[in-house]
C-alpha cells in the first residue's frame, strides 16, 4: 500500500460526485455531495466506523481482507466500516491510547470519491465497498487490538 502524496490528475467533477453518490446509494448508503465537493454520510445509518493510524492498516487488512476500508492520505488514518452495533461503544482505553476511535452515531463521514483514476486526491478505498462485507464491530475491535500489539 503506497502512502505517497500523489497529485491527482484532475479534480472531481459534478459528474464524479453524482456517479459516486449513486453508486453508494446502490449499496444502501444515504450519501450526498456537500458544498465543498466531498461525499458525506452519517455514522450509524448503514454502518458504523472505526478510525485508526495507517501504520496498522496492513495488519488489519491481513485479518479482514473483505472489510470495506479506506485511507485518508492527508491525515494518514484509515477508516473501517462495520455493521451497525446496537450498543454504544466508548473508545476502549487501550485503543484510545493508540489513537483508535469509534465514531459516535450521526458523526458525518467523508467517503472517497469514485473516479476513473486510482486516487481521488484525499481518500481512497483499500477494499472496494461494492465487493466487501461489513464485519461485526467487536471483531474489528479485536483485530485492531491485535494489530496494535504487533506494532508495539
Q: What can you tell me about this protein's structure?
A:
This protein is α+β, with helices and mostly antiparallel strands and 152 residues long. The protein has one domain (14-151). 26% of the residues lie in helices and 22% in strands. The chain has 4 helices and 8 strands; from the N terminus they run H-E-E-E-H-E-E-H-E-E-E-H. It has helices spanning 14-26, 57-63, 93-97, 137-151, and strands at residues 32-33, 39-42, 48-53, 69-72, 77-82, 101-102, 108-111, 123-127. The strands form 2 sheets. Strands 6-3-5-4-8 form a 5-stranded antiparallel beta sheet, covered by helices on one side. A 3-stranded antiparallel beta sheet has the order 1-2-7, with helices on one face. The model is unreliable at 1-5 (pLDDT under 50).
Any key phrases for this structure?
152 residues, alpha+beta, 5-stranded antiparallel beta sheet, 3-stranded antiparallel beta sheet, globular, disordered N terminus
List strands and helices in order, with pairings.
Layout: H1 14-26, E1 32-33, E2 39-42, E3 48-53, H2 57-63, E4 69-72, E5 77-82, H3 93-97, E6 101-102, E7 108-111, E8 123-127, H4 137-151
Antiparallel strand pairs: 1-2, 2-7, 3-5, 3-6, 4-5, 4-8
Helix pairs in contact: 2-4
Amino acid at each position: 500500500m503506497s502512502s505517497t502524496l500523489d497529485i491527482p490528475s484532475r479534480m472531481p467533477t459534478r459528474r464524479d460526485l453524482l456517479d459516486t453518490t449513486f453508486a453508494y446509494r446502490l449499496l444502501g448508503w444515504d450519501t450526498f455531495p456537500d458544498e465543498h465537493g466531498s461525499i458525506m454520510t452519517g455514522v450509524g445509518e448503514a454502518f458504523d466506523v472505526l478510525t485508526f493510524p495507517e501504520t496498522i492498516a496492513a495488519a488489519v487488512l491481513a485479518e479482514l481482507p473483505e472489510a470495506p476500508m479506506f485511507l485518508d492520505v492527508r491525515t494518514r488514518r484509515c477508516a473501517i466500516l462495520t455493521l451497525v452495533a446496537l450498543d454504544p461503544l466508548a473508545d476502549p482505553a487501550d485503543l484510545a491510547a493508540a489513537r483508535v476511535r469509534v465514531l459516535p452515531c450521526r458523526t458525518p463521514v467523508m467517503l472517497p470519491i469514485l473516479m476513473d483514476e486510482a486516487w481521488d486526491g484525499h481518500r481512497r478505498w483499500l477494499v472496494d465497498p461494492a465487493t466487501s462485507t461489513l464485519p461485526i464491530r467487536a471483531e474489528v475491535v479485536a483485530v485492531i487490538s491485535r494489530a496494535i500489539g504487533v506494532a508495539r
